[in-house]
Each structure stands twice: as structure tokens, then as C-alpha cells.
Automatic annotation (TrEMBL):
Annotated organism of origin: Phascolomyces articulosus
Pathway listed: Protein modification; protein neddylation
Catalytic activity: ATP + [NEDD8 protein] + [E1 NEDD8-activating enzyme]-L-cysteine = AMP + diphosphate + [E1 NEDD8-activating enzyme]-S-[NEDD8 protein]-yl-L-cysteine
Full protein name: NEDD8-activating enzyme E1 catalytic subunit
SUPFAM superfamilies: Activating enzymes of the ubiquitin-like proteins
UniProt-listed Pfam families: E2_bind, ThiF
Residues covered by the E2 binding domain: 360-443
EC assignment: 6.2.1.64
Keyword presence, Ligase: yes
UniProt feature, compositional bias: Polar residues: 7-16
Amino acid sequence: MTDYANVGTTTPSSGRMLSDMEDVHEDHEQPHPIEEEQEEPEEEEGVMLALDSPQIQAALEACKILVIGAGGLGCEILKNLALTGFKEIHVIDMDTIDLSNLNRQFLFRPKDVGQPKATVAAEFVMQRVPGVKIVPYFGKIQDKDDEYYSQFQIVICGLDSIEARRWINAKLVEMIDEEDPQSLKPLIDGGTEGFKGQARVILPTINSCYECSLDMFNKPTTFPICTIANTPRLPEHCIEWASVLEWPRVWGKDTKYDTDNPEHISWLYRTATERAEKFNISGVTYSLTQGVVKNIIPAIASTNAIIAASCCNEVFKIATGSPYLDNYMMYTGNDGIYTYTFQHQKKPECPVCGQIAASAELDREMSLEDLIESLKERPDVQLKRPSLRTASKSLYMQAPPALEEATRPNLEKKLEDLIEAGEYITVTDVALPVSIQLKVSWKE
Ligand SMILES: [Zn+2]
């Protein structure tokens, strides 16, 4: 393996091709009649070796890769890596195959429905590509420990879950041992959403990590309630009106619709259609209704293929010591095809890889409950059920129940009655792989 810690972290062109190390001394002509000291031939820049050259083969064989996810991106990634010539690949996925996967997750057949994705994908690729060993694990990434992760040289993710990405990102940062260069595992992360996608190379603690860029990923689209109620312009607004306002009005606040119940979806569809007709809006369909209420983002096979290809190229480049992506490529296929590559910056106050605590300028009159609500709104941390404490006391704890009950009265209290300026608040949350430290100051 090349020492990737020294390669391409500042400019994409600072890495060296494996060909630089190629032995070009063989096969020389007859010795010169006059004895002359043979000079070393100049290293040739930019010469690429054939994929089946012994040097490339050795580099690929020496590289054990972990693929996380065996779904839309994962099938593509496993196929690409195996066909590139990597010999040992492990794959983790906790899902089983669903009928609706078959249109794009091409390693699966109707007979495989209900089977674990990781196992079926591994067997399929091993049958088609002789000489590759794929070790599946049907379960969660959280089941595995540091020892397991430390056996790999590169980790590549094709996931649709932000939570799993946050977890593996934090795990790889946590595993860094500054004394041991082998502890640095490059993380190649691919993601797609409809016609959009991104591929990125994360070198834990060296460049921007997944957590550093969390604010780039928006929460699922939501529409302002006033637009839904008063000035709908899109079919989605009418569907939201039916599901958010009309359903509870007609069926009561406590009766939640079931997104898997066709009668409920039909009711929402009819109600949204009436609304749309009133405002001259077209485009409300049954499947759009289902898509909006279930928050379904269509998965598109070609986007997966493009992003997986890009990710696998980066794996290949890192494995063979070539210059690689620094560090973020986004792909937009909505209107034509557009890609943009940039260097996403590390966030100094990143809770996972940063060095400094984030500061929070707070209104001293604000209640603790409002602070918790405002934390949930922040796109850079994306919390679900935050618990807050200071060095000396628990401010509000979501669990266990006894502690929740004991700290609940604090929710109504003003911040100035609970915390002092300069104190640190520690925030923990189910969605957070680590805790966040907030240094408190008061707004003037
Ligand atoms: Zn970070």
C-alpha cells in the first residue's frame, strides 16, 4: 500500500502514479562497446500501467476493502470493484431484498426476495467474477468493533441513511492512532437522491469529514404551513394540505393515517385532487401522494451507476497510489448533466474531527425548551432527541424515565437560571455519534 497520508491532500496532482515506481531497466539492448556508466532512465510522468500488469495486480490484491451497503449503490460498487480486480471485499448490509429493489439492484432476482442483500450480492458476484472473495455480513455496522474495521485499507459507503454514515465516519475518526499510519482508513462516500449525487474522499482527521458537511444535506423538503393553507402552487402543496391539515380535521388529531394503507392513501389522494382543482393545479396523482406522505425519493439506476463508478475510481486511485479526488464531487443530472468538484473545508468546531468547542450565543431569557427546539432546527447538527447537561448538572435528559421526569421542570426555566456564561453545555443525542460541546455566552 502507498502511504496515502502523504498523497494528494493539498492538491490533487501531488500524488504519484504507481508507474513512477515501475522497473524500466529490464530488456536493454546489447551493452555499449565503450564501457559507460548506465544512467538511471528519467522517470516518465503520467505513464499508466495496464490493469493486468503485475504492479497493479499486486496493489489490488494487497488492498482489502469494506463496502457498506448492498443496495442500489452497493450492487454497482461490488460489481465494479470485482471487475477492477480487487480480490478481497467485505460487504455489510442489514436489509433483505424487496420486490421493489429488482429494477435497479441488478444482483438480485425474484427468487431472492426476502433474502439478505449482502449474502445474495456476494454470492452473485463471486459466481460471475472468478477469483474474487466477497465476505458478506447481514447486520448492522454498529455490531462490529475496531478490530474488525482495522483489517481494511479502504472503506466505501453506498448508503441511503445519514445516521449510518455519521456512525462510520465517527468510528474511523475515533480509530486514528497518530503513531500508526495504518490506522488511517480512507472513506469513500457515495450518495444519490433522484438525479443528484455526490462522491467524496474523506481522510479521517486530515480533511473534511462527513460531520463537517452535515449542513449541506437538507432535511426532507417541508413546505411552509401558510403556503399549504392559503396559497398552494404545487401538487405537493395540495397533498400536504390533505395530509397535514385535512386528515386531522376530519378524522381527529389522534387518528394518524397509515402510509401503507391503500384506503388512507386513496382518501388523501381524492382530498388533494379536489384542492388542486380549486386552485387550477395539475399533477396530483396517486403515486405522487404516496411519494409525498412517505417521503419517497425516487432511486434512479443511472445516477447510482454514475456515482458508484466515480467512487470505485477513487478507490482504485488510492489503492494504486495515484492522485485522487480532493475531496468532493457533486453531480447534478436534473437539467442536463453538471458536475462540480471542490475542496470542502474542515470545520474547526466539528464535533467529530474538530479541535474546538462550538460557541453558542444565547438569549438569557430563552427557556430551556426553546433552546432544545432550536437545536433540533439546526441543519449542522441534525438532532432528534437531544439531552443537555453541564459539567455540574443535568439540564434535561431524555432517558432514563426517572431522570427525564426529574429534569422536566427545567424545560420551562429561563437559561440564565440554569447556566452561567462561559459554562459548557454537553449535548448528546441518539442521532449523534459523539457529544457536542457548546460554550455559552449571552446575547447583549
Ligand atoms: Zn469533521
